[in-house]
């Protein structure tokens, strides 16, 4: 029997997609990468995932794991050879259990992030991972890329939120590491090896995740700023004033928000007059365990002092949940506005917070000197040093013109990142997009160790080939 026939026999024809039915899975969210697949398979259990991998191993077929297909680096898209099997985790979507005494939730990899948040809330708990794509991204993809999001400042990224994993290895074996333990010092940490590996070592099929108490109150505010330097100083003050209660601190250039308002006119900035002309905006959120009044008092005291001292020009504090959601909606709409405006050269970088203002000034100037007229689209999670530092086309430039400059733009931005002791990938992963850049910014020793791990865990090189590491 052919591999396709064996897959159909294993899963049933309805869960083995070919031809036109498979094509949407072979195109990434940004429409930058289009591949071809032998088939898309949709296993409904961990045992079926293991059986699929054993079949693919026997036939020598590459396997490309795919969750919600919301990635930005082409990490879930096959090449154009038509030999790969895309393994969709869409049917692995069950919440296996919630333990409120241990503050854990165990979910399958295909669970949509928002569904996990809602399941936790129904149990009186918080699962704090929060992303713009949370309505469609999946837990498996979040873990595979070590996703960050808007609350890393308080709760950490996906790696910090995972206690245990269930993984199907490249050989089709099942490792059940779903331990809800916060201390387990019994050897190598396999969990952390698979998290962030982008499906190149095995397939995460389930995870045991940390939960937290629901906050009693939340306060949200949007502030106007004159510079990134002021934003960094405001962050320092907010950390001092709020401590661990500070859960979010987002930085947005005015151009980002103006694009949102232009494309989504139902949204608005809660300011008038000169405040609308501010070059930078910060979105802060405080989560309080005491009371609404306590949270509001702390919030107004710290922000009021910042305005009096000239760090912030104006502040709009949400009076209710609807207003808070509207402020966050502005921030979360920036990637959608970017997509509407056309392809850009994206950078997901992390920089020591103390160096971010220098990085922005110097890199903006270097880009203008080399590529006059290109536009910077800068926003991100200032609280953990993660900027989405994107470059959009200048007036008169086509998308093709800009994308032809991508290697040269990468050179300018990534060299600046390195000069400021940063990383060229903060939370989006490497995928195809940055695979060939990685050797320039990782030491030979690091790359050699990574390749040894890959060879040990995936000796046939069938797990998501062409991603993260060069062949």
Automatic annotation (TrEMBL):
<dbReference type="Pfam" id="PF02913">
    <property type="entry name" value="FAD-oxidase_C"/>
</dbReference>
<keyword id="KW-0285">Flavoprotein</keyword>
<dbReference type="InterPro" id="IPR016171">
    <property type="entry name" value="Vanillyl_alc_oxidase_C-sub2"/>
</dbReference>
<keyword id="KW-0274">FAD</keyword>
<dbReference type="InterPro" id="IPR016169">
    <property type="entry name" value="FAD-bd_PCMH_sub2"/>
</dbReference>
<dbReference type="Pfam" id="PF01565">
    <property type="entry name" value="FAD_binding_4"/>
</dbReference>
<dbReference type="GO" id="GO:0016491">
    <property type="term" value="F:oxidoreductase activity"/>
</dbReference>
<comment type="similarity">
    <text>Belongs to the FAD-binding oxidoreductase/transferase type 4 family.</text>
</comment>
<dbReference type="InterPro" id="IPR006094">
    <property type="entry name" value="Oxid_FAD_bind_N"/>
</dbReference>
<protein>
    <submittedName>
        <fullName>Hydroxyacid dehydrogenase</fullName>
        <ecNumber>1.-.-.-</ecNumber>
    </submittedName>
</protein>
<keyword id="KW-0560">Oxidoreductase</keyword>
<dbReference type="InterPro" id="IPR016167">
    <property type="entry name" value="FAD-bd_PCMH_sub1"/>
</dbReference>
<dbReference type="InterPro" id="IPR016164">
    <property type="entry name" value="FAD-linked_Oxase-like_C"/>
</dbReference>
<dbReference type="InterPro" id="IPR036318">
    <property type="entry name" value="FAD-bd_PCMH-like_sf"/>
</dbReference>
<dbReference type="GO" id="GO:0022904">
    <property type="term" value="P:respiratory electron transport chain"/>
</dbReference>
<dbReference type="GO" id="GO:0071949">
    <property type="term" value="F:FAD binding"/>
</dbReference>
<dbReference type="InterPro" id="IPR051264">
    <property type="entry name" value="FAD-oxidored/transferase_4"/>
</dbReference>
<feature type="domain" description="FAD-binding PCMH-type">
    <location>
        <begin position="33"/>
        <end position="214"/>
    </location>
</feature>
<dbReference type="InterPro" id="IPR016166">
    <property type="entry name" value="FAD-bd_PCMH"/>
</dbReference>
<dbReference type="InterPro" id="IPR004113">
    <property type="entry name" value="FAD-bd_oxidored_4_C"/>
</dbReference>
């Amino acid at each position: 029997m052919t591999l396709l026939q064996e897959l159909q026999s294993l899963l049933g024809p309805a869960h083995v997609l070919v031809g036109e039915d498979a094509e949407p899975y072979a195109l990434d969210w940004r429409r930058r990468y289009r591949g071809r697949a032998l088939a898309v398979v949709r296993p409904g259990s961990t045992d079926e995932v293991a059986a699929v991998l054993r079949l693919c191993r026997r036939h020598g077929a590459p396997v490309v794991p795919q969750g919600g297909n919301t990635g930005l680096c082409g990490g879930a898209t096959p090449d154009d050879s038509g030999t790969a099997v895309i393994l969709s985790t869409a049917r692995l979507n069950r919440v296996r259990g919630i333990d409120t005494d241990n503050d854990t939730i165990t979910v399958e990899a295909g669970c949509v992030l928002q569904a996990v948040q809602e399941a936790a809330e129904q149990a009186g708990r918080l699962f704090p991972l929060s992303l713009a794509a949370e309505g469609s991204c999946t837990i498996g993809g979040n873990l595979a890329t070590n996703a960050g999001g808007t609350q890393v400042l308080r709760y950490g990224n996906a790696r910090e939120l995972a206690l245990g994993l269930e993984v199907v290895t490249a050989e089709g074996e099942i490792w059940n590491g779903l331990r809800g333990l916060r201390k387990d010092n019994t050897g190598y940490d396999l969990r952390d090896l698979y998290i962030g590996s982008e499906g190149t070592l095995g397939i995460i099929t389930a995870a045991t995740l940390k939960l937290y108490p629901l906050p009693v109150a939340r306060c949200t505010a949007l502030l106007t700023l004159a510079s990134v330097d002021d934003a960094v100083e405001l962050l320092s003050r907010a950390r001092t004033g709020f401590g661990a209660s500070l859960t979010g601190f987002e930085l947005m250039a005015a151009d980002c928000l103006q694009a949102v308002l232009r494309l989504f006119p139902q949204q608005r900035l809660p300011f008038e007059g000169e405040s609308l002309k501010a070059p930078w905006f910060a979105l802060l959120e405080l989560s309080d365990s005491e009371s609404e009044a306590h949270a509001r008092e702390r919030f107004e005291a710290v922000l009021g002092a910042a305005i009096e001292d000239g760090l912030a020009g104006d502040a709009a504090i949400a009076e209710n949940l609807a207003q808070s959601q509207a402020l966050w909606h502005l921030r979360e709409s920036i990637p959608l506005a970017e997509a509407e405006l056309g392809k850009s050269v994206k950078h997901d970088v992390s920089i020591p917070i103390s160096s971010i203002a220098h990085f922005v000034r110097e890199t903006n100037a270097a880009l203008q000197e080399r590529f006059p007229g290109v536009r910077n689209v800068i926003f991100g999670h200032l609280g953990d040093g993660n900027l989405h530092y994107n470059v959009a086309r200048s007036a008169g430039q086509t998308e093709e013109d800009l994308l032809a400059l991508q290697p040269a733009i990468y050179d300018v931005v990534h060299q600046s990142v390195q000069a400021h002791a940063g990383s060229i990938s903060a939370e989006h992963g490497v995928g195809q997009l940055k695979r060939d850049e990685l050797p320039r910014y990782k030491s030979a020793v690091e790359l050699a160790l990574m390749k040894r791990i890959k060879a040990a865990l995936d000796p046939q090189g069938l797990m998501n080939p062409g991603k993260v590491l060069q062949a």
